[in-house]
Design a protein that fits this description.
Layout: E1 3-5, H1 17-21, E2 23-30, E3 33-40, H2 44-65, H3 72-81, E4 86-87, H4 90-105, H5 115-120, H6 136-143, E5 152-155, E6 158-161, H7 174-188, E7 194-198, E8 201-205, E9 213-218, E10 225-231, E11 236-237, E12 246-249, E13 252-255, E14 258-259, E15 264-265
Helix pairs in contact: 2-7
């Protein structure tokens, strides 16, 4: 499920209407989604300047970390497939270190090395519905070699792997990492009361005036709100579900959350 910011303006909270007017919001497109930056109690000029800096950071990282468009991550994937090493920027090295820890902590359930499998299911393209599910042979071929980020060798910024099946895709956690960078940028500018929301993955800093930032969790099967929570300073919500990137095939919802063990969309997702 994705988080949806709810700026509560109900009559029962009429006293907050003035507070909400003090929130500066701007959005832009990056990582294939809408990124919204909300700043509380900041004058428009410095707020606009801060949002421009956040946008520039997101767009830079989008170019650097995209697995299927020309850039250093695509270059690394091609080098690994050819049995060669490649030099990567600092940000990719840090992401690889993070990916290895996440994969180890999840016992392999989170595996950013299965890019070939994502491609087989057509989730590397903007419109996955234009494709069709791979047959059993294609799935087996994409999963062959049991790729893992733990098979990467990091020698400073030079990266290699003895397994040519390793194909990296940071789609499962790149937005969250970028949001963390954005929050640090805003704090560095003295802007402590903020929320950065990238397609439902978000972090909060400081407060919304006299109260915490409040968000609602959208019902993935309806238009309502499944839960409401308050975020303390430094807290984040990261969610994913089967209702954003998916297509229907023979009455089955084929979604982008793949189980590395089976090579198929994870069961039980919503």
């Amino acid at each position: 499920m994705r988080a949806l910011l709810l700026w509560w303006l109900a009559l029962s909270l009429a006293g907050c209407a003035g507070d909400d007017a003090r929130v500066f919001r701007r959005d832009f497109l990056a990582f294939g989604t809408v990124v919204e930056v909300s700043l509380y109690g900041v004058e428009p000029a410095p707020a606009r300047e801060a949002v421009r800096a956040v946008e520039a950071m997101f767009l830079r990282d989008h170019r650097l970390w995209h697995a299927w468009e020309p850039g250093p991550l695509q270059t690394l994937n091609r080098a690994i497939a050819a049995g060669r090493s490649a030099l990567v920027p600092d940000s990719i090295r840090l992401l690889l270190e993070r990916a290895q820890k996440l994969e180890a902590d999840s016992q392999g359930l989170f595996n950013p090395a299965i890019g070939a499998l994502l491609k087989a299911w057509k989730f590397q393209q903007d419109d996955p519905a234009a494709g069709a599910p791979p047959d059993a042979a294609a799935r087996a071929l994409a999963a062959a070699g049991h790729p893992s980020t733990l098979q990467l060798v990091l020698d400073g910024n030079r990266v290699s792997s003895r397994n040519p099946a390793v194909q990296l895709d940071f789609g499962g956690f790149a937005k969250g990492y970028a949001i963390g960078q954005a929050m640090r940028l805003l704090r560095g500018r003295g802007l402590r009361d903020a929320v950065v929301n990238a397609g439902g993955d978000l972090c909060a800093s400081g407060r919304h005036g006299e109260r915490p930032w409040r968000i609602g969790i959208r019902d993935p099967r309806g238009d309502g709100v499944l839960a409401r929570i308050e975020l303390a300073d430094g807290e984040c919500v990261f969610t994913s579900g089967d209702y954003e990137r998916y297509y229907e095939q023979a009455g089955r919802r084929v979604h982008h959350i793949l189980d590395p063990r089976s090579g198929e969309p994870a069961r039980g997702s919503r």
